[in-house]
């Protein structure tokens, strides 16, 4: 009995393991089928076939969509390098560069072209909430090995674009706005009372400055009218000072005095005394200067 029990338990474990492996394989297969790209069915004599699809097929307005075109070529009948595709995507908007991939399956060469697009135009909007967008047929041409041109076409599936605004969103309602009826309290960098005091002080300083400037200008005007000694007065002062200086200074002072007197009759007396012999004495200079200052004729 113990041996039979062990054999039965071992068989049960093996069966469970096999079932788990089969289940995992089934899940993987289903996932692979769900993400695989449908391959166009190609006839016995057809050199090229094409299919077109969208992913997702029911997007919302503005969603990113993959527009995919799959072309199956028979390399025994056509030259794959000459393949040409015309897949107008209007009214869709292309979002990025087109991606092209190539593979081989069952003796056929598969060329897959994928373009990222989005529905952003007015034709993608409908009052009902779902807009139906139709694109022109996909056209494919390729040069056959016998020199002719092989062509194929396929229709895009109808693209249903759902709006992002529901009918309930358009119903009239009172939006929850908040209204402020009183203005906020005023804020100042400097208080108005402080600013007024500063401006008054500034005005007082400006007034004092204006008074001081006016006084300075008046002083300059008065100083400009102060009596300036003329040439005769300077010559008389120098002659009086020369009384205590050497003889050459006396002679120069007397000569200057004679020129300062000009046409005055005492001019000659000053010049004769300047160059007289013997040298002019200090008393003679003092007498001449006193006579001129007193205005007595020489």
Protein traits:
alpha+beta; disordered N terminus; three-stranded antiparallel sheet; 298 residues; elongated; 20% strand; five-stranded antiparallel sheet; 10 strands
Q: How would you describe what is shown here?
A:
This protein is an alpha+beta fold and 298 residues long. The chain is built from seven helices and ten strands. The strands form three sheets. Strands 1, 2, 4, 5 and 6 form a five-stranded antiparallel β-sheet that branches. A three-stranded antiparallel β-sheet has the order 3-8-9, with no helix packed on it. The protein is elongated, with a radius of gyration of 61 Å. The protein starts with a helix and ends with a helix. Residues 1-13 and 15-37 have low confidence and may be disordered.
Global morphology:
elongated
Secondary-structure element order, N to C? HEEEEEEEEEEHHHHHH
Helix fraction bin:
25-40%
Strand content: 15-25%
Low-confidence runs: 1-13, 15-37
- Summed up, the helix count is 7
Task: State mean pLDDT (0 to 100 scale).
Answer: 78
Largest sheet: 5 strands, antiparallel
What structural class should be given to the helix and strand makeup? alpha+beta
Architecture blueprint of SSEs:
Blueprint: H1 2-35, E1 48-55, E2 64-73, E3 84-86, E4 93-94, E5 99-105, E6 108-118, E7 130-133, E8 138-143, E9 149-154, E10 159-162, H2 167-170, H3 192-224, H4 231-241, H5 247-261, H6 266-274, H7 282-294
Antiparallel strand pairs: 1-2, 2-6, 3-8, 4-6, 5-6, 7-10, 8-9
Helix pairs in contact: 4-5, 5-6, 6-7
């Amino acid at each position: 009995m113990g041996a039979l029990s062990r054999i039965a338990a071992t068989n049960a474990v093996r069966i469970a393991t096999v079932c788990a492996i089969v289940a995992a394989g089934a899940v993987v297969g289903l996932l692979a089928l769900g993400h695989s790209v449908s391959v166009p069915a190609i006839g016995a004599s057809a050199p090229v076939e094409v299919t077109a699809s969208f992913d997702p097929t029911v997007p919302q307005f503005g969603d990113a969509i993959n527009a995919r075109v799959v072309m199956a070529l028979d390399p025994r009948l056509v030259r794959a390098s000459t393949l040409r595709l015309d897949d107008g995507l209007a009214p869709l908007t292309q979002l990025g560069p087109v991606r092209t991939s190539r593979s081989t399956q069952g003796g056929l060469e598969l060329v897959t072209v994928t373009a990222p697009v989005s529905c952003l135009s007015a034709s993608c909007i409908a009052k009902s909430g779902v807009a139906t967008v139709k694109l022109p047929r996909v056209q494919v041409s390729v040069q056959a090995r016998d020199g002719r041109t092989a062509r194929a076409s396929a229709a895009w599936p109808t693209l249903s674009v759902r709006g992002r605004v529901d009918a309930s969103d358009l119903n009239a309602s009172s939006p929850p706005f908040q209204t402020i009826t009183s203005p906020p309290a005023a804020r100042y960098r400097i208080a108005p009372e402080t600013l007024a005091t500063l401006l008054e002080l500034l005005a007082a300083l400006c007034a004092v400055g204006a008074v001081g400037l006016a006084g300075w200008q008046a002083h300059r005007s008065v100083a400009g009218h102060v009596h300036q000694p003329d040439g005769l007065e300077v010559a008389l002062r120098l002659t009086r000072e020369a009384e205590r200086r050497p003889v050459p200074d006396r002679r120069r002072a007397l000569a200057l005095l004679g020129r300062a007197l000009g046409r005055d009759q005492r001019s000659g007396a000053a010049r004769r005394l300047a160059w007289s012999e013997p040298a002019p004495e200090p008393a003679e200079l003092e007498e001449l200067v006193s006579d001129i200052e007193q205005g007595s004729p020489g």
